[in-house]
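[recover] target loaded
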């Protein structure tokens, strides 16, 4: 049963990473598995099969298997979709507060909290959206995809920072998502020529993602060991800023009463879901 629950948590993380403005790292914190995942990543060969494998399976399902559904829901029901994730975030905040309260709290913690809270808001406000790039097969293009994968994956692990938002700023979000959906279509239809072509584009990006996740996890593990209280104050600032950032990236003009009501229901359901998963 625990294995299936861990897969479900991985699905939530994967889906979160696929939506601009939503952070997979925040979902890890909200579900109470952030420390475990960071530890498992930095001790990959010892912990992969035991703990990381179900999360990875779930993330793959969330990112690849649900790519079509994610794009459809976020396009047609953006407010409700974003409210689900705000609920997921808020549902995990009480548990995070308990973690921070266990540490010795001083002025430095408040300063760190405010700095990281404000930095994420500023990143969203001044970031803007980059022009979509064309994905091609070439030495320079593949190197760029590798670097983009490293940057995006690092932000996927850091709570409050959306890897998909960073991809959008760099102009790679829509091309990468299209490549993933095209890859799935080609594989299911048996178009192996397209599978190889798109795979050649996605592989360097995927390698960059894996290496980036490992590198940032090492840094976060070191920070948790050396300054756990300040690190959790920073994480709390990142997490608390996330709902604000999500709403900043959501079109709110012209929203009707039905949308608001269904959005509130989605918020409550997301919060209950987070509390349930966080308690497992």
């Amino acid at each position: 049963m625990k294995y299936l629950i861990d897969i479900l948590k991985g699905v939530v993380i994967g889906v979160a990473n696929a939506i601009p403005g939503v952070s997979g790292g925040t979902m890890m914190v909200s579900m109470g598995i952030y420390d475990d995942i960071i530890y498992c990543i930095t001790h990959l060969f010892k912990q992969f099969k035991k703990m990381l494998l179900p999360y990875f399976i779930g993330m793959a399902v969330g990112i690849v298997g649900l790519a079509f559904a994610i794009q459809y829901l976020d396009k047609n029901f953006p407010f409700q979709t974003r409210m689900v994730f705000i609920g997921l975030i808020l549902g995990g905040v009480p548990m995070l507060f308990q973690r921070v309260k266990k540490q010795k709290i001083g002025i430095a913690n408040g300063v760190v909290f405010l700095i990281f809270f404000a930095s994420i808001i500023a990143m969203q406000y001044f970031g803007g959206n980059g022009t979509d790039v064309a994905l091609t097969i070439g030495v320079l293009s593949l190197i760029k995809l590798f670097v983009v994968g490293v940057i995006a994956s690092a932000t996927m692990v850091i709570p409050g920072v959306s890897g998909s938002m960073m991809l959008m700023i760099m102009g790679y979000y829509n091309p990468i998502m299209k490549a993933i959906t095209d890859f799935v279509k080609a594989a299911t239809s048996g178009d192996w020529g397209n599978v190889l072509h798109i795979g050649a584009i996605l592989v360097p990006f995927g390698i960059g993602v894996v290496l980036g996740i490992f590198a940032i996890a090492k840094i976060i593990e070191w920070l948790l060991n050396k300054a756990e209280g300040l690190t959790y104050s920073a994480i709390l600032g990142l997490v608390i800023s996330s709902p604000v950032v999500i709403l900043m990236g959501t079109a709110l003009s012209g929203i009707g009463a039905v949308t608001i009501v269904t959005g509130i229901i989605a918020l409550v359901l997301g919060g209950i879901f987070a509390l349930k998963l966080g308690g497992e």
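[recover] notes: The two ends are 10 Å apart (CA to CA).
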